[in-house]
Amino acid sequence: xxxxxxxVSGLSMRFGGLLAVNGVALTVKEKQVxxxxxxxxxxxxxxxxxxxxxxxxxxxxxxxxxxxxxxLAGHQIARRGVVRTxxxxxxxxxxxxxxxxxxxxHRHLNTNFFAGLFKTPGFRxxxxxxxxxxxxxxxxxxxxxxxxRTAGTLAYGQQRRLEIARCMMxxxxxxxxxxxxxxxxxxxTEDLKALIAYLRESHNVTVLLIEHDMKLVMSISDHxxxxxxxxxxxxxxxxxxxxxxxxxxxYLGEA
Amino acid sequence: MSRNLKQAFFSALLVWAVAFPxxxxxxxxxxxxxxxxxxxxxxLTIIAVCSVLxxxxxxxxxxxxxVMGRRSDRKLIPPAVSNYLTLPKTQRWVIMGLIVAALxxxxxxxxxxxxxxxxxxxxxxxxxxxxxxxGLAGLLDLGYVGFYAVGAYTYAMLSHYMGWGFWVCLPIxxxxxxxxxxxxxxxxxxxxxxxxxxxTLGFGEIIRLFLRxxxxxxxxxxxxxxxxxxEFFGLTFERRAAEGMQTFHEFFGLxxxxxxxxxxxxLVALLLxxxxxxxxxxxxxxxxxxxxxxxxxxxxxxxALGLNPTVIKLSAFTLGACxxxxxxxxxxxxxxxxxxxxxxxxxxxxxxxxVVLGGMGSQLGVILAAIVMILLPELMREFSExxxxxxxxxxxxxxxxxxxxxxxxxxxHMELRR
Lengths: 255, 418
Known about the structure:
The structure holds two protein chains of two kinds.
Chain A: E1 4-15, E2 18-29, E3 33-37, H1 44-51, E4 59-64, E5 67-68, H2 74-79, E6 82-84, H3 97-104, H4 113-117, H5 121-140, H6 156-169, E7 174-178, H7 186-203, E8 206-210, H8 214-220, E9 223-228, E10 231-236, H9 238-243, H10 245-252
Parallel strand pairs in A: 3-8, 3-9, 6-7, 7-8
Antiparallel strand pairs in A: 1-2, 1-4, 4-5, 9-10
Helix pairs in contact in A: 3-5, 3-6, 5-6
Chain B: H1 2-24, E1 25-30, E2 33-38, H2 41-59, H3 61-72, H4 79-86, H5 88-108, H6 111-136, H7 144-162, H8 166-188, H9 193-213, H10 215-218, E3 224-225, E4 235-236, E5 246-247, H11 248-251, H12 259-284, H13 287-297, H14 299-304, H15 309-335, E6 337-338, H16 345-358, H17 363-379, H18 387-401
Parallel strand pairs in B: 4-5
Antiparallel strand pairs in B: 1-2, 3-6
Helix pairs in contact in B: 1-2, 5-12, 6-12, 6-15, 6-16, 6-17, 7-8, 7-9, 7-15, 8-15, 12-15, 13-15, 16-17
């Protein structure tokens, strides 16, 4: 049995009079793939925003390895190894694919001002290593030939893959994917599935994802959490969720 | 047609409404009271001609724009040439050429020409510094002159009270300005865009007013005078050296010539500008330079990747302020006098205009814009009354024809070699 890496309990988020998220609980074990599903506007992305520090949750606790991280700033949480992609891709569009990957390594680079000014051997080495890592991941997501193209000019599917690669450059422990398959064709969705499996197997990454593509969700998730109108509706294995009448009702409406 | 006619009529009227009070009337002192006189018929004729032209222009707006439209399909500069000019490699060669020209300039130019070139170099230095903040990091800073003032007063006060020389004070002035940049940056950098601009504008004014009212230390509105010029390894360029010192011309056995001093000042300014050029060129290729660019594009994505936006912005702000400090201490040494009136908002505006005119982020652009902005008023001294008018016209024309600036630069991209 693997360790629990992320424990969320009683998470709630209030915007004025609107309770967008109410008492969501979530337990993620190491190297698991956990999916967060629910109808549009259920508050899935809000949960993501709370977990990654973009919102300060109004209540509840978020423990990463038993340490509370609620209320930390976004970049602090990212430094602890929780990184995310965005529903609408947020690449640095004017920069090349390669540079997008270099930026993500900023924290691991030699950022000493004088080292960079005089190109010390240490600085050169650190830049070279960064390049090699970027090259490795470009190859993994099949973008090597587009390395020097600006990110904004890539096709949509390529941009999505680049965003995942960019997350991986920060050497994360948990990667949170917000609708990674949105706008992908069936072939690309298959590739995405393989990529997620690869991340988990070869890089020991835990994956938390929001997704509407049920075929994808059911095939790769170990555990599924269903949210409806901000409140947790059900959780369990894909099989349990598929058979749960409550979930069917929330998605399809009452007969 | 009648709507056109009405519009044209109003436009013509507007010309009168604007031009007549400004140009057509003249105030003069009559005893103890002010009297309003009408200007001569010549001015009135000009206004009348302008209003008629405006009337015709608006009346035949459609025909006019169809003629102009056909012409404006042709670009001022063909895109291929424009692309070639904005390549970092091309610009590097042009900058090299400019540096060579700048090195031989003082030995052929007249004394006045060298003096103006020195002034231009100060603005190049300021422009390059502000370019880090505005062009690279995308933070609109309207109070940049405040850091310039800090640098100038640091040298002025250190030499006045402690008797320290220029070369000792130069790094201190840079550090001092950087410290101010850091301290002021802390509270304001959580603001964005317009709000940041307003607050920095306020800070610039606060520094100036502070220097003006701290009469006991800074001499208030009179400022600090008799600031010594830089020395060449302990040799002064004055006619007679102070006790225990030697002059440049005595040491080298030359005839005293006051142009030596001017040339030396010019070379010091050139040295500082080259230093700035080198540092910024490196910064563009360093992780921090990439981070500035990324932050300008998408702050949220940066945070999601673990980059701390505050630290990154602060580094740009501090470095920019540091260069202003260098420029300030050199300015103090060159003028020999600093007063708060040298650091008004208009200076900030001119420096910002240099950056925008040159093309955001482009070093060559900043250099060219500094030359244009400083040289034009010097060349057209007879029209000095209309300086602001020309300044405005230049800006408007730029925005119509080249909104991206004289010579914008494509950032040097990191390339993957295969």
